[in-house]
Write a structure and sequence with these properties.
292 residues; alpha+beta; Rossmann fold; 5-stranded antiparallel sheet; 5-stranded mixed sheet; elongated
Length: 292
């Protein structure tokens, strides 16, 4: 099987420089915010559908829908201590397309095909492909197979209905999280806070969130500012989003009551707690400077 290939350039946070048709649909703003939060918390929404082993290749086959794609980009930025918000999410990243990745494989041609089909029956060709992945605008109906072809070798990975659901709807079955990066509506007539006190509404599920919050409050206190934690439904001055990533990294982001990002702190350390403490200290200094 031979297929023509067009050169493609893969960016760190954009799936491809080639545009995707708008008719394919895209993620909502809320879904983008959720994907970013999950990526910054270290959650991987990719689906490993199987492994290929042959005479000239051996690799894992991984599939990503748009949510997994945005989450992976956010996670990559987090590991590299770079800020990542909805403004970094391109239309290609949000488009309802599906990526098949071949980890550690040599270059191969990839197509999708309904389960039980043979020859060219029902074959879906990629919109584009490069050395490590192929992009598809839709999936076959029901169970399907990923067909990987290189030279005289053909490998088929069957994708179950369960894995298909994970690819298309990776958030199903996940515990419901607090509103991710969108702040709660500010109650009417919130009094302007004094320069010596700020109210913080804190979100995140990292195990060192308490350490980070304590360090943030200590830095504010050193500047003569009391940082009080607001409960859900209470007025607040800043929404604080905490996340932990891989390799002992942590981040804290502060948003104002209009949802604007006003400060970001990303830190790494020898321990997870050290990273959380460092992120809290850095954000505390930035918020203290804003309150002067």
């Amino acid at each position: 099987m031979v297929a023509s290939r067009r050169p493609a350039i893969l960016a760190v946070v954009a799936l491809s420089a080639v545009g995707v048709s708008a008719q394919q649909g895209s993620l909502t703003d809320e879904e983008v915010a959720t994907a970013i939060r999950l990526g910054q918390e270290g959650k991987d929404l990719s689906v490993r559908v199987g492994t290929i082993s042959g005479r000239s290749m051996s690799c894992e086959v991984i599939m990503q829908g748009p949510l997994a794609r945005v989450s992976a980009a956010a996670a990559g930025a987090f590991r590299e201590y770079r800020p990542f918000t909805a403004a970094n999410v391109t239309s290609d990243m949000k488009a309802t397309t599906y990526r098949v990745r071949l980890l550690t494989c040599v270059r191969a041609h990839v197509v999708l095909q309904p389960a039980g089909s043979s020859g060219m029956e029902g074959v879906i060709q990629p919109l584009r492909e490069n050395d490590e992945s192929a992009i598809f605008d839709h999936l076959p109906d029901g169970q399907f197979q990923v067909v990987v072809v290189r030279a005289d070798e053909t490998h088929r990975i069957r994708v179950s209905l369960k894995d298909r659901t994970k690819i298309e709807s990776p958030l199903l079955g996940m515990p419901e999280a607090p509103s991710p990066v969108m702040p709660l509506p500010a109650p009417a007539a919130i009094p302007k806070p004094a320069a010596t006190s700020v109210r913080l509404f804190v979100q995140g599920d990292g195990k060192h969130i308490t350490d980070a919050l304590g360090s943030l409050q200590s830095e504010l206190a050193a500047a003569g500012i009391t940082g009080t934690v607001a409960q859900r439904g209470e007025p607040y001055d800043y929404l604080i989003i905490f996340g932990e990533g891989q390799r002992n990294a942590a981040s804290m982001t502060a948003l104002d009551t209009r949802g604007n990002v006003v400060a970001v702190a990303v830190r790494g350390a020898f321990t997870e707690k050290g990273a959380a403490d460092g992120a809290g200290q850095e954000l505390g200094k930035k918020l203290a400077a804003l309150s002067r």
